[in-house]
Design a protein that fits this description.
Layout lengths: L1 E5 L19 E4 L11 H9 L8 E6 L1 H12 L4 E5 L10 H9 L1 H4 L10 H11 L15 H13 L9 E5 L14 E3 L6 H4 L1 H12 L4
Helix pairs in contact: 1-2, 3-6
């Protein structure tokens, strides 16, 4: 069965490289599309979903913002199973920091220049919130088109979604981006930061084997 995978905001698939999946799954990585200027979130999701072949049963897996995206894809093209890593099931699980962005609309007014590769502000933001102790942190974030990054942050802060009970949620208990205290995940990675797929691959792979093992 095909497993379509979407990585995190600005991240390529290196963050998921160490994970092992059951042999019954064929992994297909959906690269991020760069949003068209002023493109709505739903139009963007439709473009992402166009690359999913729904003529046969399939599964979805998303990491971080990719977890939000695969849940939206699941609404258009229902999957046999949808799994999210270091992500949230609904807008009710947003952190106070993200909700502040939603209430104020601040992300919309942030200048694109702060999202450039040379921006010290963007670098310090990523280090502080994702995993400040990880020396390899920035190598996971290779999608650095400024408009795309700004657009994604806007969409995360403004996301509205009611929980789908069938979605399997795996979270780290030390995640700062999506703090576990706002969620009730199905599985918890002990001492897992937002980068737990890269830093705790063995524990994560064991859970994935359990979740996907019986998928036929």
């Amino acid at each position: 069965m095909k497993l379509y995978v979407v990585s995190g905001l600005g991240a390529d698939f290196k963050v998921l490289d160490k994970l092992k999946f059951p042999e019954n799954l064929e992994l297909i990585f959906l690269d991020w599309l760069i949003p068209v200027r002023n493109e709505s979130f739903q139009d963007y999701i439709t473009r992402m979903a166009d690359r999913v072949d729904a003529t046969k049963p399939f599964c979805l897996l998303g990491y971080s913002f990719g977890g939000i995206v695969v849940q939206e894809i699941n609404k258009l093209k229902p999957a046999r199973k949808t799994v999210i890593l270091a992500s949230i099931k609904s807008h009710h699980e947003k952190s106070r920091f993200i909700k502040l962005g939603e209430r104020t609309g601040l992300p919309k007014y942030l200048p694109e220049r702060i999202f450039t590769t040379k921006s010290a502000l963007a670098y310090s933001f990523v280090r502080k919130f994702f995993d400040p102790q990880n020396p390899r942190l920035m190598q996971y974030f290779n999608v650095r088109e400024p408009y795309y990054l700004k657009w994604c942050i806007e969409k995360i802060s403004g996301w509205k979604f009611e929980e789908c009970p069938d979605v399997v949620q795996i979270m780290g208990d030390r995640d700062i981006v999506f703090p576990i205290k706002y969620s009730k995940p199905d599985y918890i990675i002990k001492n897992g930061t937002h980068l737990f797929p890269a830093t705790k691959p063995h524990e994560t792979s064991e859970i994935l084997a359990k979740v996907f093992g019986e998928t036929a």
